[in-house]
Amino acid sequence: MGHREDLLEGAKRCLVEKGYARTTARDIVAASGANLASIGYHYGSKDALMRQAVIASSEEWGTGMVALAPADREASAEDADPLARFAATWDTVLHRIATEREFIAAQVEVLGLLPRDEGLREAIGEVLPEGGEGLVAIFEGVPDTEVGATAARIVGPFYQALLTGLMVQSLVRPDAMSTGADLAEAVRRVTKGEVLGPDGQERGAARAEDGA
Question: pLDDT tens digits, residue range 71-123?
């Protein structure tokens, strides 16, 4: 690898080991074997390099998720039960969240910095739609090229919201994480109107009692 690639690899390592805000240019130099001047030459600044490291790390994590996704992904939408595929894929994602805590912590730290770091916010904003499209492809078991624009715009942010929330929850309450089956059941209940009502009863159960 050349200095540019070495710097990016070093920055990605620092992102996980030290965090975004605590990483210095000298940390990256030590991790990459490059020199201080090469950061400015190849990336313009340490901050620009760290922004690229965030994006590259996220993309690699997503690629790894495709490789580890369950065999159900290979089935067509007609042949695979959507909720079963949803649950199985989330189990894969949840396993990675549980076993890659340093990466998750680094990603959640970055989220907290977005309101105060315009450059970081813009960099992530540029790739966010593509990330949502990739999640749709993973969860629907299709190639990226088969994800339509409407699905990417509407369903992509839904998966991103779930993923982000689960990442945060894993840091706060790692011993109380949902399973893929839990998430699938939650979707089923919401879409069937079976969420708990004001009196604590399940709405579906209350209707059954009323009709008895």
Answer: 444 444 445 788 999 999 999 999 999 999 999 999 999 999 999 999 999 99
Strand partners, 34: none
Burial environment of residue 89 by CB neighbours within 10 A (0 to 12, 13 to 18, 19 or more): buried
In the block, tokens 């011993």 appear at 175
Helices (H), 69-148: 82-99, 101-113, 118-140
Which segments in the chain show pLDDT lower than 70?
1, 66-79, 197-212
- The residue type at 180: G
d(CA 15, CA 110): 10
Confirm if 120 and 51 have CB atoms less than 8 A apart. yes
| CA proximity to 87, closest of 179, 190, 174 | 179
